[in-house]
Design a protein that fits this description.
By secondary structure, the chain is mostly helical. About 75% of the residues lie in helices and about 0% in strands. The longest helix has about 35 residues, at about 150-180.
Length: about 300
């Protein structure tokens, strides 16, 4: 069985690639959140379908009915619902402010892993996790007050982000037992196909959502959608699930949270956003916390 350090490396690399894809997805706002998610999931499913033969893999017909159910429900929750909600929040909040909402990810995963997976966390983990969460919150602290009108306008985006994060957390915790018993590529493919199927059912039942199908037609938006989907839904998805397969859910989730810090850095480099002292200090704290977790 691979060493836990492999799972930690997967989780951290997934965070970096997801941050990169988020900035690219941010530039694809001509399409709806549902459309962006559908394009991402369909393209990643096709890439994984092409990847399966490289590992001499097909669908695992020996999988138990319970594990099939886990993966299907996980795909619908964690991909069809969660990612659509997150893209909706991205549209309303922007990449940097969405990162504030995403700090709910780690405590949600850790809490669920303790309750449902019987994982144990020690004092060093709590210190490291506290540094990561404290760092990302400090890094995202907004300078100056916001008006009541702005706060009300943000509420919908915040709620969508929280719903997306919780659905993602439930989905991955639900899938973890089946993930540990299956092959990473095949399990990722099954979850993605389940997510696409869930989206198509919703689009069929809700006429106003049918405009999402336009995302599958070639358009200028593909210039950012194609690389974003390759990085965020194909490579990062494999690495993200690899983190949960080979490391504990608690450790993987904290390292995933580093995506917030990566987003700050990439936004500075690509979007020329200023980096305040609070953001710089917060980033340093989060990195220190992640390193502490990795060496324990």
């Amino acid at each position: 069985m691979p060493d836990a350090s492999l799972g930690q490396a997967c989780a951290l690399t997934a965070a970096l690639l997801w941050s990169t894809s988020i900035i690219l997805f941010r530039r694809s706002e001509a399409l709806s959140a549902q459309g962006i998610n559908l394009f991402k999931n369909v393209s990643a499913s096709l890439l994984l379908l092409l990847t399966l033969p490289l590992f001499d893999l097909g669908l695992d017909t020996s999988r138990s009915g319970l594990d099939w159910g886990r993966l299907i429900v996980s795909g619908v929750l964690g991909i069809a619902i969660a990612d659509t909600m997150i893209f909706g929040a991205l549209r309303r909040l922007g990449a940097a402010r969405l990162a504030v909402v995403e700090t709910a990810y780690t405590p949600t995963i850790v809490g669920m892993s303790v309750v449902f997976l019987d994982e144990r966390i020690g004092p060093v983990f709590l210190v490291g996790g506290g540094l990561v969460l404290g760092g990302v919150l400090l890094a995202q602290r907004r300078e100056g007050g916001r008006s009541d009108a702005e706060r009300k306008a943000d509420l919908q985006g915040v709620l969508m982000g929280v719903v997306g994060i919780v659905a993602m957390a439930v989905g991955v915790i639900l899938a973890k037992p089946a993930l540990e018993r299956g092959h990473l590529v095949e399990v990722t493919f099954v979850r993605l196909v389940a997510g696409v199927a869930g989206q198509l059912v919703w689009i069929t039942l809700v006429p106003r959502e049918r405009s999402a199908l336009k995302a599958l037609r070639p358009s200028p938006a593909w210039r950012t959608l194609v690389p974003a989907s390759f990085l965020g839904a194909y490579v990062a998805m494999l690495l993200w699930l690899g983190g949960f397969k080979w490391a504990s859910a608690s450790v993987a989730s904290v390292l995933n949270q580093m995506s917030t810090v990566f987003t700050i850095v990439l936004a500075r480099v690509w979007l020329k956003e200023p980096v305040s002292r609070a953001r710089a200090v917060g980033a340093a704290l989060a990195v220190a916390g992640a390193v502490l977790i990795m060496i324990t």
